Structures are given as C-alpha cells and as structure tokens.
Amino acid sequence: GFRPAVGLYVQPPLPNWCFQRDPQIVIGPAVTFSAMASPARHLEALLARVLFRFHPDLAGTPVILDPLDTAHHGHLFTDPQLPRLEGGDLLLCSPRVLAVGLSERTNRTAVLHLARSLRRWKRERDEEAPDALLAVEIPRRRAYMHLDTLVTLADSDACLAYPPVIVGDGPERARVWEFNLRADEGEAVARDGFLEALRGHGVDLEPIPCGGADPLFQQREQWTDGANALAIAPGVILLYDRNARTADVLSARGFRVVAATDLLLGREEVDLERRERTCVLLPSHELARARGGPHCLSHPLLRDPV
Fold first, then answer.
1. Which one of the listed residues 93, 159, 210, 296 is annotated catalytic?
2. Which residues contact 8 (CB under 8 A, 6 or more apart)?
3. How distant is the alpha carbon of residue 276 from its chain centre?
4. Would the pTM count as exceeding 0.85?
5. Mean of per-residue pLDDT scores for the chain
6. Contacting residues for 41 by C-beta, under 8 A, at least 6 apart
C-alpha cells in the first residue's frame, strides 16, 4: 500500500532563498554557481542552475565554474573534500580583482577550483576577466559566516569593515593569499593583509569601522550586519537601521544618512548621478536574526561601469 515519505514535506521549504547573494556569483558576462555548505540550502543552488539554463534572459550565460559538475574539475569528491562555495564569500572589489573568503561556508577545495577556472576564463576572455583572486582566510564561526559580513564596499575609495579581522593586528586578523590569474599556473602568494593587497592593484579603500571606535559596539553591530552594506552606486549604500553607531561614523565620514521611509514618502530624495555620499537606513526588525544584511539579500545580474 501507499507509504508516506519520511519527513514533513514532499518538497522542503526554502527559508533562506531570500538571500540571493549566495546561490550564484555573476562575474562580468559569466556566472559561477555555488555549492552550499548546509544541506538545508542545497536546493537553492540547484534552482539557480535551473534559472540560468532555462530562463530566456539567462540561458546561454557562460559558466566559469560549477562545483557540482564534475566536467569542470574532473574529480568526484567525498565529504569533507566536496567543494563548498557560497556567494557571500565572493566580493568584486574592482573589474580586475576578486576576493573570496575561506570561511565557515567556503572551503579550500572550492577556492582552488575557482582559481583554476578563473585562469581558464582569463585565457579565453582576457578583457572581461579579472587579473587577481585574493583568498581571505577569516575565523570559522557563525558570526563571521561569509566575507561580506566583515567587509563590503561603500564607495570607490571606502569600505565598511569589522576592524579586528580586516584592519587590526590581533589574533583574528585575516590571512590573505593572492592568485595571479594571468599565469597559467602557480601557487598563491602570501600578502600582508586584505586592504594592503588591494592597494597593490590600485584599489585604495579607506576602512570605515562598523560600530565606530568602541570594540564592544564593533562586535555588537557586526552581528547585526553593520559591515554588510549594499552599494547601489558609488557612495550610495543601503544599511540596516539598527546599526546606529555605524550610521554615526558614516555621517562623520561625509555620508548623508536618510531613512528609507522618508524616501518612500517623498520627504527625501537621492540622486545617483550627483555622487553625493548617502546611507539609506532600512527597517530591519527581525531580518538580522537570519544572519544576512542588504548585501546578502540582493545579487546584481548586470553592472554599469564605475
């Protein structure tokens, strides 16, 4: 006779699929797919593949890397060597420089395959491909789930950063290695730090500390996504309104701080063409409990040149 499937659902729910940064990474005209670390999120990455294969606007997009397709790397892996790669760990710092986090969610196997695939992409599409990949090893803990919980770009010359990992010299400071993607092969080379490595490629970012100068508030507001901002234009960012100390330090660094409600009601305006530094504060309420900020909730498919 009929036996119901074990478990509550025939089709498991997708409570995390609002975090569109993670299932895929669009790099220029191409896409890299993710291999999610948590079984609860495996279906998100599979659905991303379906969209890029069958949606009329996305079908035919070149694929740089699909960690779950053995044709891309020629090996079958068994846990814990399976490639694990999530989009929150990959930052496009400039058209020429990418950064990938070695984190709780992205492992060394995936980073090595990403570097290999980017080198192949560089040989095939030189002008559209980055020159360097920075591997940034961050502490493996839930508070630092992805690299974008610790640093995101706020302007062409500034970033929001959690100082103990990105700026400081303490025990949590991230270790950084650089892959030269112009070379056909070669080991990654150790660098002094994340911001220092970026400066070597002409990307000079002023670190703006989330939570301000107080280490206690830095830790508190990193947990509520104070370093996780979405830049919708150079110098125009979206941030959760619960990060009051981060908003204060942004104001002190020349950002006009505007409530999203005032924008919606017409009491304030933001002109993206004026290049006026602006921080729009979004009502966050329970969103931060899910460990994801404005950067996590979005993923651009097309980017205008800066």
1. 296
2. none
3. 24
4. yes
5. 91
6. 16, 22, 23
